[in-house]
Design a protein that fits this description.
five-stranded mixed sheet, eight-stranded mixed sheet, globular, alpha+beta
Length: 230
């Protein structure tokens, strides 16, 4: 089991032992946005899915709160997402997440690529019930910094309204018998901005609440591993 600790706005903390990790895919509410994401991945050699939205089980230990993600090569990148977390008491939490993905491996199998790198989660979270009345107004943004340094660039900029809502996935999890303490589900992502190189040396993701000015945020460096021998 993999423990994650979240700080809530009231200063309390929740520690969650991750027992199940799931990544949603192609989960945009608008079909044109889903098509845009399919096109983005097709440009990287990833075949179109047979069914949307998709849901990929991922090894639980890959849910991490870390400042560094190891990468074996240059073709890995993140995806700005929100994460739904079921805490030990069964309460639903919402936080920012970044699904770091091996794009080279993705061309051979999306599920494989999801298990090749961590899902990075923020250390701050909100009770889902506390933001339920304004979910669609929550902002979701990601910035990248080029490998080797340089100016940070905005690579994703949207709102939670672009994605299927947490309520959709709560129903899916309940139907699968997986709405249980320790379950973590990532939402799927929004389109990348054209002209920005996603194969970066650093990723930063922010889930924001315009009503309060509060944010859940994370950042990590992509740490290239040394060359193998043999």
């Amino acid at each position: 089991m993999n423990p994650l600790t979240f700080e809530l706005p009231d200063g309390s903390r929740r520690t969650v032992e991750v027992r199940r990790l799931l990544n949603a895919g192609y989960a945009g509410r608008a079909q044109d946005q889903v098509a845009a994401h399919v096109e983005e991945l097709a440009a990287l050699g990833v075949p179109a899915p047979a069914e949307v939205p998709a849901l990929y089980p991922v090894a639980g230990y890959l849910a991490q709160q870390t400042g560094a993600v190891p990468a074996q090569h240059a073709r890995t990148s993140g995806e700005a997402e929100w994460a739904l977390v079921v805490d030990a008491d069964g309460e639903l939490l919402l936080t920012a997440a970044c699904d770091h993905t091996d794009r080279a491996l993705e061309a051979h199998g999306v599920a494989w690529s999801k298990n090749a790198a961590p899902d990075v989660l923020a250390r701050r979270a909100w009770r889902l019930a506390d933001v339920a009345d304004r979910l669609d107004s929550l902002t979701l943004r990601a910035w990248v910094t080029p490998e080797g340094g340089g100016a940070e660039q905005l690579v994703q900029d949207g709102t939670a309204a672009e994605l299927l809502p947490p309520a959709h996935w709560v129903d899916v999890l309940r139907g699968r018998g997986e709405l249980e303490p320790g379950t973590v589900l990532l939402s799927g992502t929004i389109p990348m901005r054209p002209g920005v190189d996603q194969f970066a040396g650093r990723w930063r993701v922010e889930l924001g609440d315009p009503a309060t000015g509060d944010t859940c945020a994370l950042a990590y460096d992509v740490a290239r591993l040394s060359e193998p021998i043999g």
